[in-house]
Amino acid sequence: MNRDVSSQRTIVVLVENKAGVLARVADLFARRGYNIVSLAVAPTHDDSLSRLTIVVDVESAPLEQIVNQLFKLINVVEIAELSLGMSVERELMLATVTTDRTTRNQIVELVDIFEGKIVAVSSEQLTVSLDGRPSKIDDFEALLQDFDIIELQRSGRIALPKIGRSVPRLRAV
Questions:
Q1: Which of 101, 119, 148, 159 has the most CB atoms in a 10 Å sphere around its CB?
Q2: 3-state secondary structure of 158
Q3: Which residues constitute the domain of residue 152?
Q4: Do 12 and 71 sit in the same domain of this protein?
Q5: 53 and 127 in contact (C-beta within 8 Å)?
Q6: Which pTM was predicted?
Q7: CATH number at residue 102
Q8: In angstroms, rounded to a whole number, what is the distance separating the alpha carbons of residues 162 and 100?
Q9: Do 58 and 8 contact (CB within 8 A), yes or no?
């Protein structure tokens, strides 16, 4: 399903890798009524830091306001915005669909076209995996709507600056 990305911004928040930090960030968004479109969190190459990639809806609040509130959290080390042209973005999707003799080949062909993988098979179901740009995942998901989707999960966006591109830091300690 294609999403309107005109009101979405991707921010990267580098935080101390400590218990409760993610809960405080989520609580901040909930209390302030900020809408999180996507959230991915994992430790970085430095075990003392975690990287939160947050896609925010700036219609719920201006980006500057979101950044100012985030930076008030004591465990936040750095905040940067990753613009579309300056970053590499990826997302992962898993989907289980019902198949029969007539739809199995159609689904397999669709997975091949999108360079996905079939990760589990039964006589009546297929589980497929696809990774790529969020727009590619959107397109694949839209085409899957023609089939009986049992379950579908998307990972949320992850992003890094393109090599050789500097990312403007919105805030840093």
A1: 159
A2: strand
A3: 88-158
A4: yes
A5: no
A6: 0.83
A7: 3.30.70.1150
A8: 43
A9: yes
